[in-house]
User: Fold these one by one.
Assistant:
Number 1:
Amino acid sequence: MNESFKALADPTRRQIIRLLREKDRTAGEIADYFRMTKPSISHHLSALKHAGLVQDERKGQFIVYSLNTTVLEEVLGWFLELTGAGNSNEAEPPAAKDQPRGKLQSDKEEI
Amino acid sequence: MNESFKALADPTRRQIIRLLREKDRTAGEIADYFRMTKPSISHHLSALKHAGLVQDERKGQFIVYSLNTTVLEEVLGWFLELTGAGNSNEAEPPAAKDQPRGKLQSDKEEI
DNA sequence: TATATATTTAGACAATTATCTAAATATTGA
DNA sequence: TCAATATTTAGATAATTGTCTAAATATATA
């Protein structure tokens, strides 16, 4: 989930997602939409893939990228849970004084 | 919008949003949930504020932070448009060969 | 007014990121 | 098998980010 949010933080990557929302495209086709070099786009595609937001499949000479809507919907779920119908989900109470601060932000648990 | 996505890319900031979803809290209360120093949390609050995701108001000695659900819903909208009912929204076609690449990714337009 | 409390600002530093060029790999087809 | 095309990997570099400590600012209260 954290990887997804990080991947979505870049405007180029968000635009790639929008392009793939229309239809599957090859790396080269995607690169043609941007003023960036192909290696840079390849790097962005790699970040999206690492986050699970896209998949790739070689088709002969080409590599075709497609959207993984499941992961995208997971992120959507995060927002729905937050903005959605006024349900109460309490957070952890503050940590005790002597053990300075709370125990969130462990980088492991999903936030 | 880009600032919102960037702000959401950090797990600490996402957790702050969840804390504020429950109720308004002072900077100190928020900081108590994390193992980070108060200046670091202040920095994160500043990023959230800059993105318009939270607001602050001084109350005497304290500064109370609250969620701006409007901006949060804008981001939610981005996902809904993407994942939602199968409407077709076409992207710009690829740029011509001689003017090397597309004209997206101008960093100005919202993506 | 002096001191304590709450919070931010400033400045430093290490880690991460976005981008580039050059080179490597994979596939196709002559 | 060789050359062309599609894409990625490697390595470099500048910019951005997340964190810290120390200092500054704002408010409350004795």
Number 2:
Amino acid sequence: MATVSKEDYLSVIFKNLDDKNEVKANVIAEKLSISNAAVTDMLKKLSNEDLVIYEKYKSIKLTENGFLYAKNMVRRHRIWEMFLHQVVGIPWDKVHEEAEKLEHSSSDYLINKIEEMLNFPEFDPHGDPIPAKDLKLPKQKKSVKLSLMKINQKGRVVRVNDFDNEFLSYISKIGIELNAKLKVKEIREFDKSMHILVGNKDWNISQKIADNIFIEIIDKGNL
Amino acid sequence: MATVSKEDYLSVIFKNLDDKNEVKANVIAEKLSISNAAVTDMLKKLSNEDLVIYEKYKSIKLTENGFLYAKNMVRRHRIWEMFLHQVVGIPWDKVHEEAEKLEHSSSDYLINKIEEMLNFPEFDPHGDPIPAKDLKLPKQKKSVKLSLMKINQKGRVVRVNDFDNEFLSYISKIGIELNAKLKVKEIREFDKSMHILVGNKDWNISQKIADNIFIEIIDKGNL
DNA sequence: CTTTTAATTTAAGCTTACTTAAATTAAAAA
DNA sequence: TTTTTAATTTAAGTAAGCTTAAATTAAAAG
């Protein structure tokens, strides 16, 4: 049986898979703010339900079923985010935590209806791809971290990490939103902080900020 | 702490208060499909949290806090129903069970936003009043059960009970919706079934159906 | 007023999802 | 290769929200 708790485990596992498609139990415990012992417990249950591959002392993998379940959770989450942002008008930095609750309480029927109403969006308000009904992901535009851009390069915001509300709220305040154009004006080597132009305003941003904004470089056109 | 389970208890208690503003533990158990022993257990907890007034072997009352909490649950439920029906286009007979899940997973902030977006509706898709932010109920139009109408009386549907999906789905199919006009053409005494005119079509409905539809009688005008 | 019936409570036990503390294992460092 | 460290598991225990069965109480019927 799928409970809120199990759904959270599957989501966390999915989002933290490494290059070998594995996660350490360790990581799951941290992300969910629970003890390692609790994770061991639950992994045995998820394994019995054919959702994860679990062997003592080894890293965790998802089964085929587990992958499908987790992707569907991502789908629910991102469709809710899109809906809350576009239709209800909830600001960028608040949609994540509302969607976090709603994703456990909505039938596939409802999600499909909402998706239809939104005209089958491909990306959520943070630029993350929304899995389709068949759980396939749309292609994403090539992008680089803002922190890796060079002086005088221009680009368009295509994705931001939604790891922290304060971060989202801050970048939103300085005019950084999806598709916003910006230009790198200075980079200070000693702390890698940047001076950027967003619209017609100048801002200083730390490396940590720039690490979480993804840009599609544009060569032509003015800012 | 407010859990899904506690919220369900409070909702059921609120919806089943008698003329003395009391409910028997018995009734709660039936409505929630759980044992009486479980109800006793939970009532003690709710009492400790100052949500219900509980004394051994006596009927249950809500405290001031309990009333507020329960009314807010009703508010959440009905705003979700309205939203799902009007904005997402979910049919009449399906909104109830979706709202039943969503009502536990939405912040007051979100509910207020949705309410604003809907332009502060007073009644949900079944004609039930939606408590405002201050939890006050809008005034309802005077209405009578369809089953109590006389031959040749005309009226307008102002509310239906949403106790059963099949019922809602059926009456929707025969053209009965909020504000629909109808006229009683015949009443068969032996089973109290009725012959009614809805729009320009005739239908036979059982007493059980007619018991769950509420009508505002209209004297003038044609059908 | 006493008996019967129905509602309620108590008691013991279960499952889920957690906790802490101790034991074990695997991986990294010496 | 041995030792140390870090990750993981086991064991024992807890709280929430249920269950069934037995005991108690209140209300209804005689």
